[in-house]
Amino acid sequence: MEQSFELSGVHCMHCVARVKKALEPLCEKVEVTLSPAIAVVTVKEPLKIEDVNAALAKAGDYSATPLN
């Protein structure tokens, strides 16, 4: 299944790479775009937003809001 998240704190391609690296352990596939700042992940089971934001916080000043 796919889940999409709107990202805050993502301002450049370096941010995109850090967010992608932070989310990779949580899912099978991760796609992150800069404009708009969105992450689309492929997972077997739905991710909890708390887990997503905890992973992002370790990578920097990033946070996510579910889109679907």
Identify the notable features of this structure and list them briefly.
Alpha-Beta Plaits; HMA_dom_sf; 2 helices; ABC transporter, permease family protein; metal ion binding; 4 strands; alpha+beta; HMA_dom; globular; 68 residues; 4-stranded antiparallel beta sheet
Structural features, described:
This protein is an alpha+beta fold and 68 residues long. The protein has a single domain (2-66), classed as Alpha-Beta Plaits. 32% of the residues lie in helices and 31% in strands. It has 2 helices and 4 strands, in the order E-H-E-E-H-E. The protein has helices at 13-23, 49-59; strands spanning 2-8, 29-33, 38-42, 63-66. The protein has a 4-stranded antiparallel sheet, covered by helices on one side. Strand 2 (29-33) and strand 3 form a beta hairpin. Helix 1 crosses helix 2 (49-59). The chain is globular and about 30 Å long. The chain starts with a strand and ends with a strand. The model has no long low-confidence stretch (mean pLDDT 97). It comes from Parasutterella excrementihominis YIT 11859. It holds the Pfam family HMA. This is ABC transporter, permease family protein. One of its GO terms (molecular function) is metal ion binding.
**Distance separating the two termini:** 11 Å
Physical arrangement of strands within the biggest beta sheet: 2-3-1-4
Given helix and strand content, the structural type is alpha+beta
Reported CATH architecture = 2-Layer Sandwich
- CATH C-level class is Alpha Beta
Radius of gyration: 10 Å
Instruction: Work out the number of β strands.
Output: 4
Q: Roughly what fraction of the amino acids lie in strands?
A: 25-35%
Which fold name is given in CATH as the topology?
Alpha-Beta Plaits
Give unreliable regions as ranges: none
Shape: globular
